[in-house]
Amino acid sequence: MKGNTVFFNSAPAVASAAAVGGKMEGDGPMSACFDEINEDPFFSCDTFEQGESRLLREAVLRALDKGSLKKEQIDVILGGDLLDQCVGTTYGIRDLDIPYLGIYGACSTVTEGLLLSSLFVDGGYASRALAVTSSHFCAAERQYRFPLNYGGQRTPTSQYTATAAGALVVSAERLPPYVRAATVGKVVDMGVTDAANMGAAMAPAAYSSIKRFLADTGLRPDFFDAIVTGDLGKVGSRLLCELFERDGIDIRSLHRDCGTMLYSFEEQDVHAGASGAGCAASMLCGFFVPKLRSGEFKNILFAATGALLSPTVNAQGESIPSISHAVWLSYETGTVPDIRFKGRRLS
Amino acid sequence: MKGNTVFFNSAPAVASAAAVGGKMEGDGPMSACFDEINEDPFFSCDTFEQGESRLLREAVLRALDKGSLKKEQIDVILGGDLLDQCVGTTYGIRDLDIPYLGIYGACSTVTEGLLLSSLFVDGGYASRALAVTSSHFCAAERQYRFPLNYGGQRTPTSQYTATAAGALVVSAERLPPYVRAATVGKVVDMGVTDAANMGAAMAPAAYSSIKRFLADTGLRPDFFDAIVTGDLGKVGSRLLCELFERDGIDIRSLHRDCGTMLYSFEEQDVHAGASGAGCAASMLCGFFVPKLRSGEFKNILFAATGALLSPTVNAQGESIPSISHAVWLSYETGTVPDIRFKGRRLS
User: Fold this and answer.
1) pTM of the model
2) Domain assignment present for B66
3) Looking at chain B, which residue has its C-alpha nearest residue A323?
C-alpha cells in the first residue's frame, strides 16, 4: 500500500463480467447492457428474497458462461448484498460448491469484491476469483423502508433500488480491462440522518476515496476517461462535484454516476435516480467493462459508494456512515511511473 | 491455493490480540482471558446496538494498545458483526479514520478477517491489518429471536449469544503465533431449519473445511495440539466428532469448541453453550493466541463457524446454510514440507 492505495503490479484482468436485471432496468436506457432481463420480480420463486438469490445466482452463472468457465475453475467467490445477513448471496451461491468469503459494503460491494478478487489473483493466491453482488427493489423497500403494499410516498431525494446483479471474474489472463490499483475506503459520516437522501450521505465518502486515490497514485483527474461513482444519484452527484470544486478541480465533464445512468429521469419515476448494490455492479459489468475491453475507454476510476446504516440504528437517531472503494480499471497494463501524466495536478 | 487452501509462505504474525466481554463472560470460567469486562449491557450508551459498537471499538483500541500501535499504523481493518448491515462494526470504527473492508461470515467472521488480514500482509499489500468482530446478547436476541422483555423460553439446543468482541493485528513481525495456511469455507446446508439449533446446522460446515484443510496440507489431525471450532456448542460438537468418526478418525481428544468453553454449564444457564461472532473471536484472542505466543500450544487449527441465515428467510421456511473458514496458527514458521508428519494419515 502507498497511502491507502493497493497497487496490483501484475495487473489482474476482468476476464468475464455479466449483468442481470429486472423489468425497470429492461425498460430503461441501459437495457442493452444486461445479459438477461427477467420481468418477474419473484424470479419464479415464492418470495422477493428468494428471487434476489435467484437473480444473483443467475449473474454468477452468466459470468461463468461468458468466460467459458466451469464453476470448478473459480477458486473463491467474494460476494454480499443488501439483505440482512447477506442472504441474497448465501442462498444464491449455496449449491455452487465454491469457496466463499462474505463481504459487506452496502452499495459499494462490487468494488470491495473487485479489490479483494484482484488481491487474490495478483498475490498468486487464486487463479480466478469471482466478485458478485445484487439488490432487489421489492426486498429492499420492505426491509429498509415500507412494504410495497403500504404505498408510502417517496421523497424527491429518494432513489430507486435497482433490481439487478453483477458478477465478474478476475484472473491472470492478458485481456483488458486490467485492475491496476485500488483505494480502500474509510468510513465517512458528515452527519446526514435522512435515510431518504443517501446521495448526500455518500458523496463525502466518494470524495474522500477519489481524492486519496489521486494523491496516492499521482494521477490527475483528466487522465481518466471517466470518474465513475456508484449510486450518488442527482443530489449526491452535484454534491461530489461541488466538493471537488472547493479544491479548484472541476470533474463535471469526467464524472459519471451509475445512479443517474440506469433509468430515464423523463420516463421512469425514480426521483433522484437509481441505487442499490446491483446498480453500480450491473453498470460496471454491463457498461464499463465492455467499453474498456474494446478500448473505447482507456482508463476509468470506478468508485462505488455505500451507505452503512441499518433501519434500526437510523430509527435510533444515528447519522449515516458511508464508504467508497475506488478501483482503477485500464485498457493497458504497465506500472504507474510509465504513465505520461497529463492534466492539472491535484494539489 | 492448493485445493481450497491458501498458504502464507511468509508466515504473517498475530502481533497483538485483545478481547472484551460483558457480565456473563466475566462470571464464566474464561474471565481471565478478557482484557476488559464491562458489566453494563449498554456500555454507557443509549441502546444495545450502540453498546455493541462501543464494545467492538474498545476491542480495537485494546489490540492497538497491547501492540503499542497507533491507529495510523493500521493499513486496513477487516471487520463485521451479526447486526443487520454490520452496524456494530461500521459505527464502532466510524471515528477511527482507518481504511475499512466490511466482511460478513456470521460467527465465522474472525477467521475470515484473520485469513484476509494474512493475505494483505503476506502479499505485501499492507504492513499491518486488523481483524475484528463482535456480538451482543441483547441486540442479537432482539434481532434474531425475541426482545428480552418478551421473556421467551429458550429450547435445550439453543445457545447463548456472547456479549464479546475480539480484535487482532496481523503484521510481518517475527513473533508467534504465525498464520501458516487457511482453508476458505464453502456454504454447506444439510437441511436443518431449526434456528434454535445452530450447532447442528454448522457442524457439517466445520467438518467440510477441516477435512479439506487436512487433505490440502497433508497434515494429520494429531499434528495439532487442538482442533478448535467456533461455537458449535454441545450439540454441534458431538455431531462434528461423529462425522469424523464415520471416516474412522477420532478427534474427540483434540477437539475444543469455543461455544462449550466460554460459560460454565453448571453455573450459568446457557443450554447448549455459547454462540455469537464474539465467542470464537474472544476465545481466539484471549485464550488461544496467548497459549500459542508462549509456546504452550505449538499448532492449532482454528475453524470458526457461522450460520448464514436471516430471520426473514428462516420464517419463509428456508433451511440454514453454514460456513466455516479454518486457519492454521503455529508457534513456529517454516514451509509445509518441513513439517515432520505424525499420526495417522487422513484418507
Assistant:
1) 0.96
2) yes
3) B100
